[in-house]
Amino acid sequence: MGEQQQPARAQVVIVGGGIIGTSTAYHLACRGWTDVVLLERNTLTSGTTWHAAGLVTQARGTWGTREVVQRSLDVFRNLEHDTGFSTGFVKTGTMNLATSADRFDEMRQLASVVRGNGIDADLLDVDRTLELHPLLNSDGLYGSLYFPEDGRGSATDTTIALARGATSRGVRIIENVAVAGVMTAGDRVRGVRTTAGDIEAEYVVNATGMWGREFGEIAGVDVPLQALAHYYVVTEAIKDLPRNLPTIKSGDEYSYVKDEAGALMVGFFEPGSYAWASRGIPESDGYIRLPEDWDHLGDFYERMMYRVPVLADAGIRLHFCGPESFTPDGQYHLGEAPNLRNYFVAAGFNSVGFLSGPGAGSVLADWIVDGYSPVDLPETDLGRVQTHETNRRFLEERVVESLDISYEIHWPFQQRESARQLRVSPLYERTDAAGAVFGELAGWERANWYAPAGVVRRYEYSFGRPNWFEHSAAEHNAIREAVGMIDTSSFGKLLVQGRDAVSVLNRLSVNQVDVPIGRIVYTQWLNDNAGIEADVTITRVGETEFLVLSGPATINRDLAHLRRHIGDQFCTVADVTGTMAMLAVMGPNARDLLGPLTDADLSTEAFPFGTSRQIDLGLTHVRATRVTYVGELGWELLIPSESARHIWDTIMDAGEPHGLRNVGYHAMNSLRLEKAYRSWGHDISAGDNPIQAGLSFTVKWDKSSGFVGREALEKVKSEGVARRLVQFVLEDPEPLLFHDEPIYRFGELVGRVASTQYGHTLGGAVALGWVEASEVVPRTWFESEPYEIEVGGRRVPARASLSPMYDPKSERPKQ
């Protein structure tokens, strides 16, 4: 890019000169932020960008990541016009092949889901598939899912075009300069230390690719990712090969095929890869190639030779293996570090960096300039990261599985199998002995459902009713009709103490937290734009002491958010999750079950809803909180970990006459959705405000302390909203919903499903979904039917409500 003088100051420093770093620089410049320096330790495109296969495919796993690819497509279509430099993008389409009935079922679901993002997707029969791609062998083929707007391009050309577009607007790009340190002041970044001197900066962007974890460590930011060996093969020239054929993706054969300058490229997302350089990436020129391994690839290549017979007669010109970074959950990292203000990360793209990178840079630039993400992306949020996920051995096991399952069928409720048994409840042995079938969330082993005696304890995945459906239904009904007990020990617990604790929490919370000791408060924490950063319950356990309960996957995020707002006030916060077990005893018989086990008066008069206090239970003491996440009478019991088994045994021994049943998280989810209780990261996130989310009942507008985001929320209140979270239930009791299904009102696409489960009491699949009008409308508009939700290509009528369809007056928990 020519010689550039390193400045002493810049508004933004971007570290990493691949497609994501240059896209961020380009889009910042397009927003008018030109005091930007991009630093590259080697040369532009080094690392992993230079060897990207160049696929542009829109079928990502979440609504937000599909929106990112839509932004990428805009870049591919318009960048050459802006800069004069080609991206090499050609629209060819992509065909996802189905060679099994299960795969074809998955494609039916996917075809519906992507329509919610406005993506064209056509389910094709075998004849039409062969017409569009005549090189295919149709044996065993069920059909394909065709994305006509997909394409391919050159990662190198696109990166150079982005860089030229950035520098032409004033951005400085400096190559062959390494960043050795990150300068901070308190909880805020203030610059970088390079081999050529220091640069003071307001913002730093970690776009260092497979070095992202190591570079994050320098600043104390956890960025879990691991480089894996990743392969593709390019044949010799093939005579009379058609050009610009649709890219073929065959998940059942773990491969993709595209034509490449008169030859074919075959790439692999195969099981059995390996972690590379987990102890540290060696110094190099950045253009790293790993050894070939035909013994590993041979079987997968032979499968594609069967599917694309012309490969059998083609010689191999290039057998390439290079490192590519993958993450523990298969989602990339995009956003601000929770523990370091103005430090942004864009790394760990799981081999979709080329197709997502231009859009990710666009999102990140808007985020930096505007102060919030323009796309709802809780799945990429750094706050989801758990501390153990940066452990080398954990990464070696879990991240390999991320690649292993990339091209597998993505089943509903699919559970990870690697790196398990990492975090267990004090009651793990008890739940295991009771027949629990465990899932994993944030490293925690959690009882998702219980297998009765004689039932095999395993998941059998399906797009229909799964093998655990009837057992989870029985658990659901036990809580609705009798009493059930859920081990909720994995829920996060923060102990907030100090003379300013009430001031800190009250300023952060939309609800009134300055309540009498022993009261519990449900509240949200907002950002300055009134977006929901956290959804928590807070119990005042003393004059200067509070207990904050959060979800297992959000506890680290909530902890960091709370610490950000303490400032110089006298307040401390500690994560005490592991010190306490928690049991939720819920159902109309909960009082009858617990009453004889304690001397405490559990009547409504003595122990009203929203009350929390220490009580005796069995031979010890617990904190009993009268609250519910399932919509029934009950108590959450916080128990010292060392006493958890005693409390479990005491309750179980007394439970049979009351119909007590162990209940798992699948049933808890169906129960909470029938009651329309929200879940952060699934239904609500930082892009949603309490009025849109139906949570304005928690907002105390007139409290003297005010709250973060009040001014923005008052503006929303005065202007009204065009978008709301609505509860739905399908009128047909047979279909199941999974996530992101498109919602239609009077035949027009108006939204998407957020979270869903089968509602055994309501008698159909129940969901919370976002619905958006073209302008501000009254509440009644959102409940005006007819609504339909598209399920596997079929639009199913659905009932809609802004209030809970089950017990809308919330009388049952307060009885």
Describe this structure in words.
- This protein is an alpha+beta fold and 815 residues long.
- The protein folds into 4 domains: 9-87 and 153-225 and 329-384, FAD/NAD(P)-binding domain (3-Layer(bba) Sandwich); 94-148 and 227-324, D-Amino Acid Oxidase, subunit A, domain 2 (D-Amino Acid Oxidase, Chain A, domain 2); 412-672, 2-Layer Sandwich (Gyrase A, domain 2), CATH 3.30.1360; 673-813, Probable tRNA modification gtpase trme, domain 1 (Gyrase A, domain 2).
- The chain has 18 helices and 38 strands.
- The mean pLDDT is 98.
Brief sketch in words of this structure:
This protein is of the alpha+beta class. The chain is built from 18 helices and 38 strands. Helix 2 crosses helix 8.
**Helix segment tally:** 18
The chain-level mean pLDDT equals 98
Largest sheet: 8 strands, mixed
**CATH C-level of the largest domain:** Alpha Beta
Net shape: globular
CATH topology of the largest domain: Gyrase A, domain 2
The CATH architecture of the largest domain can be given as: 2-Layer Sandwich
Q: Find the structural class using helix and strand composition.
A: alpha+beta
CATH superfamily of the largest domain: Probable tRNA modification gtpase trme, domain 1
Return Rg in Å: 27 Å
Supply the number of structural domains: 4
> What fraction, in percent, of the residue positions are helical?
10-25%
| Assembly level | single chain
Approximately what portion of the residues adopt beta-strand conformation? 25-35%
Low-confidence spans:
none
Total number of strands: 38
Give the terminus-to-terminus CA distance. Answer: 72 Å
